[in-house]
Specification:
It is built from 12 helices and 7 strands. The protein has 265 residues and is α/β, with parallel strands linked by helices. The longest helix has 20 residues.
Length: 265
């Protein structure tokens, strides 16, 4: 998916916790730092695009946050976002039940993250989920507190279209807006142009590729189970298979073997 994103012209990748959890058939709160770092390394090997990584709640207190920043930076991430939820994080966050920590505790974690990065261009994004549980004003107050603690960007989750349009005017640092397709909380979905016009600097797509991949695989496997056939048009599948092979770089592998162990092929 990272290679495809690069091929079609994107300039940055996002690696969300929901998507990583789904990839491993579990929930984001059950992911360990080592698992996430491994996924980051795999993507960094496959694509040259900068990667924004969901670091959850930083895996603990400021000391743990330092380890998190250093491990993900070393794995090849270009940025991470860290949220002001409790650690260990709870699966109920998927339902919009978010337990947030005191603002001073999160500000200390942001300062630790900023101090821990070895590359000054490594981007620290502070995320607040406070708007869902404590209202718009609390979310804005926290966003500005995290900006004051040194965050380069802030990610927040407005509840309504009106809140989403107000937020960029009320926060003193560039904002990230998250499009979460299929969310059950009524959060608006914006196009890239709309988000930019409203004032957001980054539009982060959380789970679209996860959802469409799930639908495609489930549909074809359901047909195969019920009819004994995939129902796919082979005239379409041959170029699709070739495109897949091109994406993984198979032609380059062939070239190397022709020059070494498979001469004349």
């Amino acid at each position: 998916m990272a290679r495809i994103a690069e091929q079609v012209g994107f300039e940055c990748l996002s690696l969300g916790g929901y998507a990583m959890g789904a990839h491993l058939a579990t929930s984001e709160p059950l992911l360990g730092l080592a698992e996430v770092a491994r996924i980051v390394r795999d993507i960094a090997r496959a694509s040259r695009l900068p990667l924004i990584v969901d670091a959850g709640a930083g895996w603990g207190d400021p000391l743990h946050v330092i380890r998190t920043v250093r491990d993900l930076e070393a794995a090849g991430a270009a940025a991470l976002h860290m949220e002001d939820q409790v650690f260990p994080k709870r699966a109920h966050y998927h339902k919009g039940i978010e337990h947030i920590i005191p603002v001073d505790e999160m500000a200390a974690k942001v300062r630790a993250a900023v101090a821990a990065r070895r590359d000054p261009d490594f981007v620290i994004v502070a995320r607040t989920d406070a708007m869902r549980t404590d209202g718009y004003a609390e979310g804005i107050e926290r966003a500005n507190a995290y900006a004051a603690a040194g965050a380069d960007l802030v990610m927040l989750f407005p509840n309504t279209d009106e809140e989403a349009r107000r937020a960029p005017k009320d926060v003193r640092v560039p904002l990230v807006y998250v499009n979460s397709e299929g969310n059950r909380l009524g959060r608006p979905i914006f196009s890239a142009r709309e988000a930019e016009e409203i004032g957001y600097k980054v539009l982060y797509d959380a789970i679209t590729v996860t959802l469409v991949a799930y639908r495609a695989v489930r549909d074809v496997l359901t047909r195969l189970k019920t009819t004994g056939r995939t129902g796919l048009d082979q005239a379409e599948m041959a170029p699709l298979r070739k495109a897949t092979e091109d994406t993984i770089g198979l032609e380059e592998y062939y070239r190397i073997e022709r020059d070494t162990v498979e001469p004349g092929t």
